Every structure is written in C-alpha cells, then in structure tokens.
Amino acid sequence: MSTANPLRDPRDRRIPRVAGPCVLVLFGVTGDLSRKKLMPAVYDLANRGLLPPGFSLVGFARRDWEHEDFAQVTHDAVKEHARTPFNDTVWQQLAEGIRFVPGEFADDGAFDRLAQTVAQLDAERGTGGNYAFYLSVPPKFFPDVVAQLKRSGLSSPPAGPDGRRPWRRVVIEKPFGHDLASARQLNEIVNSVFGSDSVFRIDHYLGKETVQNILALRFANTMYEPIWNRGYVDHVQITMAEDIGIGGRAGYYDGIGAARDVIQNHLLQLMALTAMEEPVSFDAASLRAEKEKVLSAVRLPADLATGTARGQYAAGWQGGIEVPGFLDEEGIAPDSHTETYAAVKLGVDTRRWAGVPFYLRTGKRLPRRMSEIALLFQRAPHLPFNATDTKELGHNAMVIRVQPDEGVTVRFGSKVPGSAMEVRDVNMDFAYGESFTENSPEAYERLLLDVLIGDPPLFPRHQEVELSWEVLDPVEQFWAEHGKPDQYPAGSAGPPSAEALMARDGRAWRRL
Amino acid sequence: MTIDLTETTTSAIIDALRQARLRLGGVASGMVLTLVIVTDEGAQYDAVRAASGAGRQHPCRILVVIIRRPEHPSRLDAEIRVGETSPGETVLLRMYGPLGQHADSVVAPLLLPDTPVVTWWPGMVPPIPSQDPMGALAQRRITDAAAADSPRGALVKLAAGYQPGDTDLAWTRATPWRSLLAATMDQPSAAVTGGTVSAEAGNPTADLLAAWLSHGFGAEIGTEPSAGPGITEVSFTTDDGEILITRPDGRVAHLRRPGQPERRVALHRRDTTELLEEELRRLDPDDVYADVLEQLRRTQASTVAAP
Question: How high is the ipTM of this complex?
Fold first, then answer.
C-alpha cells in the first residue's frame, strides 16, 4: 500500500483541496443558521467540486419527516440562499446522499437509528466511516447530544480492516459559554467525549477573506510592518455595527448582551490578529500560540466606569423605519439590564503596543451595518505648513473593512488643487470585489471545508476562548454591580457615554 | 455605450475611453488585467462573449485584435464598448493593410499600467506563442489546441516552443477530471501499473490527461478512442484490481473501485467562460503543465520512432 498520492503536486494550484469521503450530521436543521448558511454552503461546496464522491448529509431534529421532506427543505434553502447558480445535476448527486433521522436528544432509539443510518451510508455510498457532527443547537443541549453520541458508539470509531481509524469531528457554534466558568464547563462536556483536536469552534468571522487577509497584509508585505507599532500608531478602533435589532432572538439575547455576543469572540479575535507578533509558520499551533500570547497580554482600564460604556437602544427611527426600543421588544423584561451596545478600551502590554489603546465597540440598531479595523496613525511631529493649510488634515489611517465592501482603505493627506498650499484627507482604496478574478467564498463554505479536511488554523481553541472570558468577565461583573445601560435612540451612533469615553482621551469614534 | 471610431489612432482611442469613463462616472482604476484576444471577424462574437462573462465580476480591459484585408491601405477602426455587458471596457480593433503586421504597435499603448497582460488565441495556435508579437506583450499566453487541425500535433509543437506563462485551454478542460482523479487516489490503494483514458477521437485534453497520469504514476497510461462526448472513461490497473471512472453522458461520473460501493459525482463539461475564469485566476507559470507537455512530447517521439 502506498500512502503518498502521486497525483498531488504542491505546485499544482489548479486542483482544489477536496474533502475525503465523509458524512456531515447536522443537529438543529430547523434553525435559521442551517437554512440560510449551512445548507447553501454544502451545496456551494458540491457545486465547486470540493466535496468527495458519495458525500452524505444527515439531518437530525424533532420533526416527523421522511428523508424526502428533509431533502425538500434543503432544496428550498439552497435555491433561496446558495451563492453559486443552481445546477440540477449537482443537486441530484447531493440529494441522493441526504437522510433524515427524527427524534429527541433524550431518545436512545433515535440515536441508535442515527448510528444505523450512517453505517448504511458507509455501505451504500462509501463514506468510509468518517463523520462530522455539527451541533447547530443551543448549548444547553450539548450535554445530551454529546452523551448520546458516546452511548451510541458514534463518537468512537472502530479501526478499519486496514488498521486505519476513521475520524470523528464535532463542530460547535458560539456562544462558547457566557463566562469563564461556563466556558470551562462546556469544554469539559465536549472534551469528555471528543479530543481537543476533534473539536472545531466556528467563529464565522475568521472564515472571512478580509480577516485572513490581515495575516497576508501584515506578514507578506514589507511596507506595513515597520509602522505597525506604538512608534507610529496612535490608537486602534475595532467596530462591529449592526443596523438590526434583536429580532426574534430575545430568548437568546436577554442576559447575554452585546459584549458577550460580539466582543468576547469576534472583536477580541480581530484584535488578536491585528496585535499579534508574526507566527513562525501558518500552521494551527503557531498561529494559536501567537494569538494566545497577545490575548494574555490584554489589560483592562484601571477604572472600568470611564474605560467602558454600554447602552440600550430606545425607540427611534432607523433607516427610515420607526422601530421599538429594546425594552419594548417582545420577550424582553421592561427592567432588563442587558446591553445592546458595548464599548471598551483595552491595552496590550507588549513592547510593540504599550501605551496604544485599542477601542472595541459593537451595537445593534446603529445607522448601518459595518465591521472594520482602523489603525489611526500619529500626526506628523512637525508640519512645515501654515496651521490653516492643514486644518482639514486628520490622522493618517489604515482601515481594514471586514464588511460590507471587503477591502482596505488608506487615508492620507493630499494637496488640494489650486494656487494655495492646502492639504486635505483623501482615500486610496483596495476592494476585494474589484481586484481578483475569483469570487470570495462565503465564510461558512471555507470553514465547513476546513472541518471536513481537518484543517484547524481558523478555529479558536478553548485556551483562546478562556483567555477572552478572562478579559471580559471583570467588565461584566462591574456592569452587573453598577447601574444600568444608557439609552440611545435607534439609528444613532450609540450612547453619549461611549462618546465621552473617547472624548476623555482627546479622540473620537470613526463615523459609522 | 458604444463608440465607433473609424480611421483612428491609439491616442484618439485612449481619449475616447477616458471621456466615456468620465461620463459614466467612474475611473479605470478598478480593472485587474488587460486581456488581448487575437481572432477573426467570424469568431470574435463568441470570444468576446466568453471573455465578457469571465470579466463580469471583475472588470478588465478587453482588446480584440482583428486583422482584415491585408491588401488594403493601412487603416485602424475601433469600436469601444463601455458599461454594457461587463463592468470593464472592450475595444474591438480592426486593422487593415500593412498595419496588420504591426498590431503590437496599436495594442501596446492601450495596455493598462501596473496590471498583468493576458493574450488569448481562441481559434488558432501560433507556432511559438511567446515569440508571436501579441504573445510577447503578455505574461500569460492562452492557446487552444482543440481548435487546431491536428490537436495532438499542436500540443507537440507547443511543447517544443514552451516558455513559462504558456497555457492551453485543453489543459484547463482537464482540471475537473484531474481533481476527481486526485481525490480518488487520496484513498490508499495499491500502486497503479497501467491504465487508459478513453475519449472521442482528436481530443487533446485526453492526451494531456494521459500524459499527466503517466507522469504522476510513472506508469504507461494510454489513450483509446470512444464515442464521446469528451472524455468518457479513465481506468487504472492496480494489484488489487481495476479502478474505473466512467462518464458516458458528459455530466455524471461513476466511480468504481475494488471492494467499495459505486459512487457518483457531478462532473459536467464547462463552457469557455468558466475555462477563462480558471485561466485568469492565477497568472504565474504553470509548472505542472510544462512537465505534462514534456511528457507528452517524449511519448509521442518514442511512438513515432518505434517501427
């Protein structure tokens, strides 16, 4: 038996990475995420030829469905949400491998049927005993599901006839707990059955092209690294703004809030990628080592009252529509202290970043949907112009736009045409959509493929999750003990306390 | 909008392009490459359509070089299309008379600065692409052996004149097959000792695929004629038995290997737009293609030399 594949040549960039034979088992197929993101991503991967022959998709839910019903649900979700055009041949191939197992998480029989179903797929479609379990269900069900996977023997593969052991992987979504203690507990539950190399935590932000481009921008170029430090950077602003309210997520959102929902995972991950040192290589271990180093160096402001801000959106007009306030949303207690806007000023105690504040903010019902990382550079120490000439000159800035219009903007001063020497800020722009003859895949496509291939660099490890909670827990505790969130009108840029946080440092948030 | 310029010059074309852009409210900075298409009046419609499709998501400047009536006096006619089928710019350049021998002098000033240049010959294969005046302007030269009278002969000639940056659409057509075959061989199997690629006669993609497999396995993989369409079957002989992939209908492939259930996978034939999209994705030299061409040249030489 030869093991190296003679048809794989690292120089051959035309042949894509294709997952090996496997089954994807989806728990929680009735959720929004499944229909809008996961099922379309599976189809898009199939359409791009990145799924193996025989690939099968098994749905598990508390529904009285036949295989065909689930296939129909998947079909409709794909038609509506897939990124690539619908191709009937591709769909037929995919549909042949779609199965459904009805049942409850507490029902032993249902999991036995699941085990039979995947074993049958191995026999019929040659999926090789490799299973990925995607837990798209609330974390309170994790203990049940994980225990059932163990009981039914699904989590521990028997060695095959050739001595090779098929793989088992489990995929979980945020929230990874709601504080350090619960994150540890959750991790123990999952780790009791699956080894830490088999656990894939999805933070879909890390699947975005722009986020991965931070690494390319910083470490493949020479012109940015010399200025990527306290000698040139005045401060950094990391923003994730949403224009929507909580919608139907009251049950999830109340008691969680903006900081746990967004800052703990997305924003701290973006901050880690921005602030970390160069990894020795781009394998998962080296990348995580650098991220963990920088996360462990994050320092909270000494006074949390002035170094943080939080708010709740009040009734107002957002994008031309009159919308209710957070406390009036269905399912939210009128005295809820859950914040829908959170801002925090963080320091990074390293030689590179000492004294450079990182301002993180996120909120709902803000003027528009936007995520970005902005490095604001120091002003020139001396300007050989008249003060009036440079009145309109701001900070030089480098803005990495995560969404929308993924790309990078550089902002610098330029002479205004005319006889006077007047300097004003201008933009230099790189847009992903315009610069490549290749479309960006959806984040979930990339991440699902990485799970099926078993490529872990883009998935946070539990150490990173715990470090993030260590940053956030004191803030949450302080907030719980002191007062309540400020109100801000829906459609505005956030509460006055957030403006004040910046104003105290002589700075201002970038306009949303 | 479409602008017709008759008996014109390159500077007038550049002016017209700039004016058109200004009127449409944009600048030409978002364009990622210049695609030069060398074709004739009969084939230009399909070629421009395919190129516009490939450039739909990603604006590029498409320069179509059409040589007409060498016996006429020199004349340059230009047809400029901006903001129509694709977000980029398309300029059809019709060259009459002796000017046709100096097409590069027309094309060179129209190339976008700071971006790559790709030349594509949709209907013919120049003897040595890199030495063709249009090829010399480009870092990527796309030929199509399937359009030649003798596709296999064209490949052998391309092999002899190969320079880094050359590529051929017959090779691009092989990618889905190669991807499937590589994925198939990701599973451990006994060493491949031989095999066959079956395809309709005169299919250069089958020749390249067989050469690639021979090169990879270090075993002889031959070609067999079949009724088509395109490539219909690839089989490998191993000590454990035969690995067989058939695609009788040009849409779905059936994969059989010893001791495993038959598996099916969508493997459709792609149109020219999709082929161009793949070609434009990477503009660095394709070393694997170079190896495969060389392998093909050696096999052909030994076949001819054999009695």
Answer: 0.85
